[in-house]
Amino acid sequence: MTHPYEPPRTLARARTERGEIALRRRGTGTGAVHELIVNGTFAMDSAEVESERALAEALLPASTILLGGLGLGFTAARLLESDLSDLVIAEIEEPLIEWAHQGLTEQLAGVGADPRTTLLHTDVSALLTEPGRSFDAIGLDVDNGPDFLIHAGNAELYEPDLLTAAVAALNPGGVLAIWCQQRSDDLAERLARLGETDLIEVAVERDGHHIDYAIHRVHRSAGKGQNGTMTENDPTTEYRIEHDTMGEVRVPKNALWKAQTQRAVENFPISGTPIEPALIRALGLIKGAAAKANAELGVLDADVADAISAAAAEVAAGKYDAEFPIDVFQTGSGTSSNMNANEVISSLASDAGPSVHPNDDVNASQSSNDVFPSAIHIATTDSLINHLIPALRHLEESLQRKATEFAEVVKSGRTHLMDATPVTLGQEFGGYARQVQLGVERIEAALPRVAELPLGGTAVGTGINTPPGFAPKVIATIADETGLPLTEAKDHFEAQGARDGLVEASGVLRTIAVSLVKIANDLRWMGSGPRAGLGEIALPDLQPGSSIMPGKVNPVMCEATIQVGAQVIGNDAAVGFAGTTGNFELNVMLPMMARNVLESIRLLSAVSRLLADRCVDGITAHVEHCTHLAESSPSIVTPLNKYIGYENAAAVAKQALKENKKIRQVVVERGYVSDGLLTEEQLDTALDVLAMTRRPS
Q1: pLDDT for the residue numbered 81
Q2: What is the DSSP string of 196-237?
Q3: Residue of 3, 416, 674, 697 marked catalytic
């Protein structure tokens, strides 16, 4: 027996400055499900709470816990099952706190009544930045994660500044756990800069779909704060005094950097984003190779050079990325980051034996003005060759496999988004594969300019303070260690005063982005539907597409690709402008250029593989539907031009469209066969849609 649909019952509704929030119940008794609706959008319900309880498990054991977001109370309820002493819950929506005190649901009632619970009507960010507060564990379940925000204003919770504040608010050995609708690589990368991280994935089945919720965690080391070092925000902080030519500077006691790095940290608290790890690696490679060359040329003693080389190798291996805290938006030459590398390597090398000076020894025969742009070009060359090109070839192969698979699938061609003469699905996928292949060829064509290094030009391109033979030795060493096709600049004044090679590389990345956006757009158009779209192909179902429309699935991988394309195109616009700022002997927008180019490569590399693996490989063709659309298109009248003329063919097309008839039927009815303009055999041959896709032999 079927039961009539019973609409949800609204238990409570309230309007706040952030919009409307409603608590509803579906069903009755033990089968009742409570759901939270925010601004008309489904936020959560009690039908499946495994991931909410998993967030609590990720925080335990702990005595004092801060929970950002009350929700329906399932995370808090699980925490209260433990022997914690204090649970502070920050909830920005005051009605939720009132409903908990009123006991509108069993879970909320239990949380509100427990004496260990403190319910605060506040934004959790205010508690994270409030001096004097500290917790053993902090859990954030304020939104759906950085990639699926319900409230755009919550984006700052996932940004470096507040993440840093959250870790600083932890007691030594504490843990920060963040619930997300799905894993976020960007969030994981940000947390990795703050301590040891791990990921907990919670697999659930919901509405017939498999979902992997994610809990990102970062563990604070005992006695340490952001970047794994003592910080000013940490009550356990201790400092040491360092000196430079401008005087004394307080530096966190355990930091490997020194005075100049600290000044830059204090001067540039802008984006919270440091330079890319690939750039740090390149700086390490240069410093190690320079030390060896300086020893061979008599500039450095062997023991000093060996200590520098060993320390630089560890920096290049990524062991000390957290010791590079300077914001990417800094001095335009990158001097701050070059000195950061000099100081960190100096500290590591001095710990190993001889006293090593950051300027006199680590920076010997060098200037920031030739080292930093050289590091950018090394990092870019490496990333292009070892990351982007393999990723693009992986995508090309995926597309080419589909081109072969769909070689005989006829479909309607489209120009101006209107019906055109037939093509095969395989021809379209072959075109996509060729676009990606040309992207690789464009990279390879630009590489000789990108791989040309200004190293050896020092301050202005003249090579002052550099011994003869220094640059060729350093570049040869790095090329040998990395296998990269690095060369010395043919003209050091061009190589230091301009960054045209990077501008060219960025332009290639923009072209690749444009290609990927075109491909992704075509795929989502062809997969549109399932009833009111083109419906020519089926894209893999990856995740639920709507918080309110059950069963809806969206082309999310195509949309992610398009967003990457937009970001890369924007990055290129900034790089292009930055290229104009090469005033006289030095460009002064180098860190931003490095950030944008390396980010573009990283994004394109990641999304190319994902598009191949999670989208293209799983595409299937709706063959019969494609054939039907091709044969129903009035454009297939085109081959009849040579028999009945353009104007008569146009009349046939219009009549077929108006009367919903096949082209063949209209041609016969209008008497073109009986009048002898063409035979039935010629008519059938002319209207063979597969034959129309073949190029004349």
Answers
A1: 93
A2: EEEEEEEEEEETTEEEEEEEEEEEPPTT--GGGS--TTSTT-
A3: 416
